[in-house]
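sry for the spam today, last one i promise. struct tokens for design, 290 residues
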């Protein structure tokens, strides 16, 4: 008896998976890219749940932003200049030990209460953006004078404090909400690089302790220990940075789209305040003869 083929219904074919839409390449100036990328790096560092390490990374990325802005404008940055311009406002407490204790307690509380830590991270990213924007204006308008770094830093700080920073703060906050997964991925990458540096520093401290003990006992130090030197965090990050360049570009473009929608008068006012403050100290745009 011949087999009867039952009329099974053919399974519906799954539609072909469409390729994910990718953000276009960033079409902004090199200086703007430096500012946006390091704003993102500073903000993401606050997501690292390790006391002191998050603040160290935020300060490091702000210092890197200043250094790269020098490079973009064809200037050689001296360490003292970078340190002055990237320095945060000094705390109002005169007792250093008391300030350190209060800082550690607050840092531990913020790590437990993530909401407070992220609010602080948004503020740090906002301040980093304004620092980069105003410093870039100094370079572009020919206002930078190596011997007046303290004055330039003071006027940048004054212009930043007098601005309505909630505009950029809200733009960064909106960017984080729409790209939260990418920010977390960036924070994990930073944490791995930071912990690797901490381990190297720990081994270096142990090596120095052993060298001191040998010195006390008048024993020669092995050549490999004497010549060994650990890389800085900046060097470690630079070697690993190509792994996250695409991620940084996407986040920078998202942030640029958010900040680009802000009122132009806000930034015009910032620029005017900065230039007026510098003019009071005799720092005016340098006009070259054509």
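last one done:
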């Amino acid at each position: 008896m011949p087999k009867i083929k039952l009329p099974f219904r053919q399974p519906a074919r799954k539609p072909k998976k469409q390729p994910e839409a990718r953000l276009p390449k960033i079409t902004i100036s090199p200086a703007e890219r430096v500012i946006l990328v390091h704003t993102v790096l500073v903000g993401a560092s606050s997501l690292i749940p390790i006391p002191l390490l998050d603040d160290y990374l935020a300060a490091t990325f702000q210092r890197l932003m200043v250094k790269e802005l020098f490079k973009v404008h064809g200037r050689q940055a001296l360490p003292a200049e970078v340190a002055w311009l990237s320095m945060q406002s000094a705390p109002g407490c005169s007792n250093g030990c008391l300030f350190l204790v209060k800082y550690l307690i607050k840092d531990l509380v913020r790590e437990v209460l993530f909401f407070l830590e992220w609010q602080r991270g948004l503020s740090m990213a906002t301040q980093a953006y304004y620092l980069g924007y105003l410093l870039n204006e100094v370079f572009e308008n020919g206002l930078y004078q190596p011997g007046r770094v303290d004055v330039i830093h003071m006027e940048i700080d004054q212009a930043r404090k007098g601005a309505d920073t909630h505009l950029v703060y809200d733009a960064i906050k909106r960017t984080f909400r729409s790209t939260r997964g990418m920010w977390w991925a960036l924070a994990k990458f930073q944490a791995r690089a930071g912990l690797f540096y901490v381990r190297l520093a720990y081994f270096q401290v142990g090596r120095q302790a052993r060298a001191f003990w040998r010195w006390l006992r008048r024993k020669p130090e092995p050549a490999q220990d004497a010549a060994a030197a650990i890389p800085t965090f900046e060097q470690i990050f630079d070697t690993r940075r190509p792994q996250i360049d695409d991620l940084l570009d996407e986040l920078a473009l998202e942030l640029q789209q958010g900040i680009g929608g802000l009122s132009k008068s806000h930034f015009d006012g910032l620029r005017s305040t900065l230039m007026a403050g510098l003019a009071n100290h005799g720092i005016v745009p340098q006009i070259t003869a054509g």
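Residues 30-194+244-279 form one domain. ok im logging off now
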